[in-house]
Amino acid sequence: MRDIRLVAAFELRQTLRSPQGVLGLCFLLLPLAWWMSKLAGNAETINDLAAGNLTQEQTFLIGAIKWIADIDEDVLKRLFVDHSPFVTGLFAMTVFAIPFLTMVASLDQNATDIGSKGIRFLLPRTSRDSLLLGRFFGTLFFWSIGLGLAGVASVVLALVVDTNHGPALILLDGLWFTFGLIMAALPFVAFMSLCSVTTGNPLLSICMGLGTYLAVFLMGGLGGWFHEGLKVIRFAFPSPMRYDLMLGDTAGVIVAAGAMAAYTVVFLTGACWIMRKRDL
To answer: How many domains does one find in the chain?
Structure first.
């Protein structure tokens, strides 16, 4: 356990200074700032939606969205009434991109050291499992900092422009926002740990991660339009459940969080198995 803590602390410091770490934070925070500006610019309309003060045109628009996106009344209520719509709006946009952003930020957990053979100088001081898990937790802590900053930004925005929800609820939503994003990112950090030890090269690691995710998306998402049975392929990753982490009902949140943890264990188990078997 001590070795894992030391490796995690070192990995956190290194990632904060690394190109992929800075790039991952930029990919997260810059689009988030743009989306916040759009929400702030439409604050009056969003507050009217949350309060139920809809014009005829807005009522028609909401009805069209419900029909096109197959959204029921309960989901809309959670979006606009139970939570601050500014926090849930930022969550929906951010969690959509979490798989891509997380894979970019966590692409090189062990790949460079394996490829350069530098890892052989580390192994006499610690075990393979400690090295892998330490770098996993270090990367996760780093990414949690970025997601925490996103959570703070969502709270600040909502406190300034939301006229229908009190500060206490907005702060609670901010905590839920951050927890949901961290849980959504968790299995993808673990998956990139698997890709990293499998390829032993940062470029191949990100290609493997993004390529696999894109293949699953195309076969499970687009392929599902042609054959219903192909939709099950989407669950090779827990992505279909990530929206439920904040926008689902209580049972949906519990199931989604449990699924994220289970996928993380599976990916980390696979990474540890490959790490033990690989000639380093």
So the answer is: 1
